[in-house]
Amino acid sequence: MRKLLQPHHPGRPRIPLIRAIAALAVLVAPAFPARAQLSPTEKQLTDYVDAHFNASIQLLTDAVNINSGTLNTAGVKKVGALFARELQLLGFTIEWVNEPDSLHRAGHLVATHHGKKGKRLFLIGHLDTVFEPDMPAGPYTKLNDSTATGQGVNDMKGGDVVIISALQALAAAGLLKDMNCIVYFTGDEESSGHPHAVARHDFIERARTCDIALAFESAKGLDTVAAARRGASGWSIDITAKTGHSAGILSDSAGDGAIYEAARILNSFREQLGHEQYLTFNPGLIVGGSDIQIDPMDARGTALGKTNIISPAAHITGDLRFLSDGQKDTARGKMRAIVASSLPGAHSTIRFSDGLPAMPPTPGNLRLVAIVSQVTSDMGLGPTVSGDPGARGAGDISDIAQYVDCLDGLGASGTGAHKAGETINLRQYPWLIKRAAILLARLAD
Question: What is the pTM for the complete model shown?
Fold first, then answer.
């Protein structure tokens, strides 16, 4: 890898060129925009974003100040109405896709624009956040010139506003009128209803009519995008064992008990699968004792156990994350084999549940990375690379990755997603909007 052309001082680490250029661009770009490689029309796009940035921030503020926790269906619909108004002004046809009442979710906002040329683009955001009304997260609050905080300001109302602001710039430049584009804002990305296939049926069917899908989940800065995301699935283990007086534990007659069996299984998972790249497996709940009760809907468990009784029952639930179906299937096979080798006096069974599929780094996805890299290079921000898939979990785009070329991580940047105090980087934000506008213009050309 090339290094910066600067003297090397002993004890001072060299900085990779890509990271250094991106970091330098963030510092100087607001005052000294470098746009030498942009066309006149693309410069018009960036000028529009700068001139209307305050309006973008106001739209973001209005959205953040509406609580739209996934289960707050009225709040989700209110954010949908806010964004629908902006998209309708741009000439999009607006629909609200309701889900079955059994899913207890708000539904999805779909905005469609029919043009005469170019690729059919599928732009993905979501209206909901993890923050329900009783959770600790506040309104939009500017902390300083570079940072603001608020519920969902980064994940992903900031990304939603990137989409809308970029489309507004395209409309002002006369580029939107011929674009074929579907904007799909789901209402339950943070916790889709069950069954998941029902919750995402319309989403998948519309995406399959398009050529390229772009998701505006949180950006990891100006120099990376996501050409791959890991999939997610679940697993659960039930263990039964002989019980009796604790004095007999580990004997031939009494066996090893359910809790030792649970410990064996988890430690074997760690030892045999714990060093594979992009594969993770996390036990999120474990209950063991003389009597156990499990409430899977609320992810809760209770146990009664005495130290002088060998535990006859245990239960474990966890998740499994993977970069391809092959990796998932291989891991499941190893886990089944581990579970089947029970300790004396114990019997264990494992069940798997499918969640979101993986988004592997396909050649088509990597070609899109190259297009983004040319955009950021022409903007004077340096090249863009594909980020580490291990840094991201699954998202809405994972459901359609098998059907269309995909990119993610095109939204707002910041810190602390899913936490009280979540932030957005206001210095990078206008540049991310500009990047999106130019990318959409080039893809639709």
Answer: 0.82
